[in-house]
Amino acid sequence: MKKVLIITSYFPPETGAASNRIFHLAEGLKSHDFNVSVLTPLPNYPTGQIFKAYKGRFKHTSSENGIIINRLWIYASNSKNKLLRLIAMLSYSLSLVWFFMWNKMPKTVIVQSPPLLVAFTCMLFLKSKKRQLILNVSDLWPIAGLELGAFKKNFSYNVLERIEHFNYKRADLVLGQSEEILSHITSIYSEKKTFLYRNFPDFKSPNLYENPPHEKLKIVYAGLLGIAQGIYKLCQELDYSTIEFHIYGSGAEQAKIETYILNHPELPIVYHGQVSRSELHEVLLQYDITIIPLLKRIYGSVPSKIFEYAKLGLPMLYFGGGEGESIIKKHELGWVAEAGNYHNLNAIINSIELNMISEDLRKKIVENGKKEFDFKNQLERLKAII
Fold first, then answer.
1. Digit-coded pLDDT (tens) for 136-181
2. Which of 80, 235, 313, 318 makes the best surface tag, with the fewest CB within 10 Å?
3. CATH code of the domain in which 84 resides
4. How many structural domains is the chain composed of?
5. Global pTM exceeds 0.85
């Protein structure tokens, strides 16, 4: 049984797309006869504080569903202060180096990127002719940070760009979850071996059913309430004449969203807090459609929600541009509104009639998703090259 180590900055019980993506990869590889272990920080995301069950520990090792998980110390922080965030990444990088020094590494290692600095640490210390280093790129940094306004083109940006290129150069294989990511990498290293790995999750879908009759279109958002998603602005811009808006999750904008709802009791906006992923899968099916917004179009980014909701048969309204928009259109997974155009968004919403949200539509979404992104087929192809 071939051994594979996955190094990631996010893993359950943490929530969010990054955690779910790596969890499914680990479970999938295990089901395909790999001996899988995971190296990750003590759980702290998105709160920026070590979870209660892990406080006071320097390291925690457990076996979960046959996967060995080593959780290492980190100086946890979700501060907006760039220096504190840098210290947090450096602390985990130092923990990784300490682990590398005292433990034998398997011949196949998958490294999650971003964060760039963590990936850089792995690429620098683990490169060997006898080892296959696989870089799993879910977002293009520092480009994404530039587009989000987090970075400016200066000396620091140039340093991050050099780190990015170093990581690609050292990788024996690069996994990318979008065509744009792979195009970007091959534009830098034309001969680099790449693999398109869509994050289509492998879980048992809840039974599909038609919702009981109701008067307004029930729209749901579930996920990170961060700056990039722009849920606070969405609350302000939506036309509520024909809809209800329901929100699940946590993040930087949570307090602002809760305050906005409190100050506008006349609006049909409901914040439900955060629920477990398995519970969320059941809960989501009571809604008519889900919205997937991005405040700005981010080159290379394809929200993992697309693949998860396709598995659930949940019709999507995509509002973020880029490759995600093309996927929704091409595979008939829902509706698309022009990125950043709230007038167009409201017009699209007003065009969606309740009788369009049928059981047949949900089944079609499930079938299209399975046909195009089937998780097991992806893993079979991946298994052949690692």
1. 999 898 888 887 777 788 888 899 999 999 999 999 999 998 999 9
2. 80
3. 3.40.50.2000
4. 2
5. no
